[in-house]
Amino acid sequence: MHRVSVLLAAVALVAAGPALAAPADAAAPKAVCGDPAVDLEPVAQAFLDKLAAAGGPPIQILTPAAARQSLLNLQAAYPVSKLPADITTRTVPGGPTGSVSIRIVRPHGVSGPLPAVMYFHGGGWVLGDASTHDRLVRQIAVGARAAVVFVDYTRSPEARYPVANEQAYTATQWVARHGREIGVDGSRLAVAGDSVGGNMVAAVTLMAKERGGPKLAQQVLFYPVTDASFTTESYRRFATGCWLTAAGMKWFWDEYAPDTAVRTRPTASPLRATEAQLRGLPRALVITDSDVLSDEGRAYAEKLRASGVPVTFTHYPRMIHDFLMLNGLADSQAAKSAVAQADEALRRALHG
What we know:
It comes from Streptomyces nodosus. GO terms for molecular function: hydrolase activity. There is one protein chain. This protein is α/β, with parallel strands linked by helices. It has one domain (about 85-350): Rossmann fold. It is built from 11 helices and 8 strands. Helix 4 (about 135-145) crosses helix 11 (about 335-350). The longest helix has 19 residues, at about 335-350. It starts with 9 loop residues before the first helix and ends with a helix.
């Protein structure tokens, strides 16, 4: 599994299709996550073992289109039930690109204005879309009793930093001002995201403070990207074998922000923000797992707390990156617990 990167063996699903749904050969070598190795939840270990048996090229040698299709195929290889929801789409003003599409996901049959959770998806700024995150977004909508507004930001390399952040911020601002047009109460607003989406959550909260709004009641960051230094102990320990690799994360940064000079800006690397910049940001829930981003996620939670921001931090040591998004890990104890934790935080912030 040492060559596994984000979506590494998912490429094999393009050719192998449903055959990969069968259990891996008992004689196949087991994947090893971490040095020293982590004792993963059985479902996570089985997931990595299956990918190791499938093989495939590392993400950084794929085209963006091929990598995107790989994730779609991988998600489709693990059929899951999805909570019922009422879904609409809308195009709204979207910063430097002029407009951006949003997808409004409401608990099925619930009428009247609901509070809103702006959701920014993960996938290294390159991958991911409404389809890959559909199950998770529905879970949050139902659990938080809110309308989840999924922002279909322009991915990289088609757009570079800071386009996605500007789109996310402008969409958030639009919902705050015009929420009634889509059946939401824009005065009750939170932001949430996974991986690079967590990075965008941090960026949008910083932008909202700097630009005078909108007011945000809660931020939820699932295993967030918060720095571009690649020098932490978790980058060393989990460099290979744990789904998201160090090489894969570096490739994502190269696609998103090829100008390395901009990577130190707080809206690119929120961990670089000063305590003064962080002071007064909305209360935060930060969740990490056993991946290369673990240390920077923890460090960001600690820096928020040192800046006076109320923070709840939870580490899931027996789980790998993307465990909330990946359909193959949806039934893990960690995924169930983390979703429930996020739902509770959002309900308290949005419903009082």
